[in-house]
Task: inverse folding
């Protein structure tokens, strides 16, 4: 009898061919971290449930009947025990997601691994006529060098799962497309390194370290030289204006080429930084080598963009630029769609740009995951920022983190562009009076509502508002106007939230910053005299507090620690002050650095993959998405979603026109009839129906009083 794995029209792929194809790919992927035998075995056993008469009847008759084919391989692995027991998670979850371990009282109807072991399924033992269970001989990792074996094993299971699901997708895709390959993995690291070296060739001749470009060259050269070092943990602590984007890329490419690493992954906190960095990288390395992976990018299904769309599924490109959210939520996910890319994180140089923005509520599990990637998955990590967080105590080998910036303290003295001045408590009227006297000034406040009210009181020619109350495409348009006015030396006053503090290249004569974390205030100072065209004595960052108390969600402790350091007379911009700030902040937060107790979910061989996958969310639930249909494309997308319901492509394109609104603000908008649901099929997705609530200069007005209503 011929057992069928897949069928398309008259064409069939035999089950044995699919198992062997998947096993070969999964083994190759797992071989990158030394466990090809595990990957191969998973691939050979993942679909043996398809040997049942029930499944063969279903596929022959092309019926829609559901037949469980994933539990069989999991049961075989569980019965064998030992190494095979860990594979049972991967096989059981290769469609439904990695399950929780469960307990001995679970029944066959429970979704846990223990439940799946007891589940009654159609007889599949015909597999024995074609398939032999492969031997597994390697260890998952060096047990002696591992700090937390349970956590390490949980990561190993996810990595193995990634190898399996990506191999399964790719082998199935190959059959369904009849061998027509549309994937273009990009060029090798040595080619990209040569391209970068050509790009920076002229810079390297600069020996004058008394100039800005000379200092940037000094940092760049050191990063290139250090690139030949062995894999490990690195820091690149470079002041604003020091050229860290190109310097970090230079280190990464030289390091990848020297250590036979396959990929450079940039992890950043904001999509605005991604777009900026990716544009720089594409200009140096070529469009086909740089993948942006975040919610605001849409790689369409056109012939030209299809390879990028496919690469975004499993990060099969040499340079990937992504967000903290995408990176860490994928590493702690249990779903095949999110975990598929994980094996391509192994064998990489991973650069955390703006490392001070690592998620505070999940800092301990994130740091442990980073260390795991270095220790067991042949990766190197670079913590890249002007305000280096004090993470060394959280790493097992914290004292071995190597600094890539030469003469670091001297660089910070040289690049100091502005002085800080604490003006204490002010009323909004006093602040408004000061700002109105300025020619070119940036004022950063802690909340969107405050930014709106302050802007409204100052509004006039040359005054602008920037906030996440504006949809992304609108913000980019406003930023373009601001840059043009600054360049022409025209009046330009900008009232903003913290979104301008990282990755937004603006240069103001004066900056006003409401008291915030030390790192935020230093980032704000990076927008003051950024180009160094004025002496630092002429450029001031004024730190202020409002007289009335203000609730700033998630920032209370940062503000309190900064307040204490200022009261002690510390100089905000000193490196020692930055380190002391983070040390105290982490001390005060204590157990809240693992707010959801993620690390406790992997202990004593009980692994709660599904639970952690649900709970590990860097952006907490409690926001709604509102689409603003001011532009034609937004209107067209809205109509498309009404007619056709949810599609990943349409949602990605729509993000350019969307605003995230906290529940407390959303309830007022909804209660006033200003928003309505787009479709019952799309959860938490709404359109703005009162168009006057969104204006060109201010975005979405959040100043809605309870009880207001709109008559449509």
Result:
């Amino acid at each position: 009898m011929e057992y069928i794995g897949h069928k398309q029209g008259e064409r069939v792929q035999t089950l044995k061919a699919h198992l062997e194809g998947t096993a070969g790919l999964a083994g190759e992927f797992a071989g990158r971290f030394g466990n090809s035998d595990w990957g191969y075995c998973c691939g050979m056993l993942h679909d043996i449930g398809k040997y049942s008469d029930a499944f063969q009847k279903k596929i022959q008759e092309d019926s829609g009947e559901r037949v469980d084919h994933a539990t069989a391989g999991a049961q075989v692995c569980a019965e064998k025990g030992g190494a095979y027991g860990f594979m049972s998670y991967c096989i059981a979850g290769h469609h439904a997601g990695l399950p929780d371990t469960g307990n001995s009282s679970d029944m066959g109807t429970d979704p846990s691994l223990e439940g799946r072991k007891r589940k009654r399924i159609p007889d599949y033992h015909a597999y024995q006529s074609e398939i032999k269970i492969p031997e597994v001989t390697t260890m998952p990792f060096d047990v002696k060098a591992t700090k937390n074996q349970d956590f390490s094993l949980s990561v190993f299971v996810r990595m193995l799962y990634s190898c399996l699901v990506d191999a399964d997708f790719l082998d199935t895709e190959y059959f369904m497309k009849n061998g027509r390959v549309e994937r273009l993995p990009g060029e090798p690291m040595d080619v990209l390194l040569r391209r970068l070296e050509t790009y920076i060739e002229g810079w390297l001749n600069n020996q004058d370290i008394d100039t800005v470009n000379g200092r940037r060259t000094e940092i760049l050269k050191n990063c290139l030289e250090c690139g030949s070092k062995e894999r490990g943990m690195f820091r690149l602590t470079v002041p604003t204006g020091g050229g860290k984007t190109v310097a970090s890329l230079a280190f990464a490419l030289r390091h990848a080429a020297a250590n036979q690493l396959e990929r450079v992954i940039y992890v950043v906190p904001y999509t605005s930084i991604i777009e900026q960095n990716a544009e720089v990288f594409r200009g140096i390395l070529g469009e086909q080598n740089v993948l942006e992976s975040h919610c605001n990018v849409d790689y369409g299904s056109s012939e030209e963009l299809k390879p990028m769309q496919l690469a975004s599924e499993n990060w099969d490109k040499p340079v990937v630029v992504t967000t903290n959210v995408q990176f860490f939520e994928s590493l702690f996910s249990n779903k095949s769609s999110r975990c598929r890319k994980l094996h391509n994180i192994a064998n990489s140089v991973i650069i955390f740009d703006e490392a001070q923005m690592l998620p505070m509520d999940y800092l301990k599990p994130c740091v442990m995951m980073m260390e795991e990637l270095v220790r067991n998955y042949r990766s190197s990590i670079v913590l890249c920022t002007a305000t280096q967080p004090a993470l060394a105590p959280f790493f097992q080998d914290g004292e071995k983190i190597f600094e890539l910036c030469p003469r670091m303290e001297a660089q910070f003295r040289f690049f100091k562009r502005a002085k800080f001045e604490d003006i204490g408590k002010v009323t909004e009227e006093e602040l408004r009076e000061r700002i109105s006297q300025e020619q070119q000034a940036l004022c950063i406040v802690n909340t969107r509502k405050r930014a709106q009210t302050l802007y409204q009181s100052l509004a006039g020619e040359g005054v602008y508002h920037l906030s996440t109350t504006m949809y992304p495409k609108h913000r980019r348009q406003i930023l373009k106007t601001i840059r043009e006015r600054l360049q022409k030396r025209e009046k330009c006053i900008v009232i903003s939230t913290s979104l301008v503090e990282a990755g937004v290249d603006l240069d103001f004569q004066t900056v006003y910053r409401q008291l915030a974390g030390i790192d935020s205030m230093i980032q704000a100072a990076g927008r003051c005299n950024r180009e160094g065209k004025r002496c630092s004595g002429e450029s001031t960052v004024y730190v202020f507090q409002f007289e009335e108390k203000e609730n700033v969600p998630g920032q209370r402790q940062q503000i309190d620690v900064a307040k204490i350091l200022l009261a002690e007379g510390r100089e905000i911009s000193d490196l020692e002050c930055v380190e002391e700030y983070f040390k105290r902040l982490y001390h005060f937060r204590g157990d809240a650095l693992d707010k959801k107790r993620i690390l406790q979910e992997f202990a004593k061989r009980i692994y709660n993959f599904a639970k952690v996958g649900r709970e590990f969310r860097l952006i907490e639930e409690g926001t709604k998405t509102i689409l603003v249909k001011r532009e034609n494309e937004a209107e067209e997308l809205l109509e498309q979603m009404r007619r056709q319901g949810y599609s990943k492509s349409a949602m990605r394109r729509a993000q350019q026109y969307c605003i995230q609104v906290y529940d407390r603000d959303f309830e007022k908008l909804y209660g006033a009839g200003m928003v309505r649901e787009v479709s019952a099929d799309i959860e938490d997705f709404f359109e703005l129906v009162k168009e006057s609530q969104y204006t060109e200069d201010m975005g979405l007005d959040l100043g809605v009083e309870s009880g207001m209503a709109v008559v449509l």
User: Anything to note?
Assistant: The first helix runs from residue 15 to 31. Confidence is low (pLDDT under 50) at residues 298-305, 706-712.
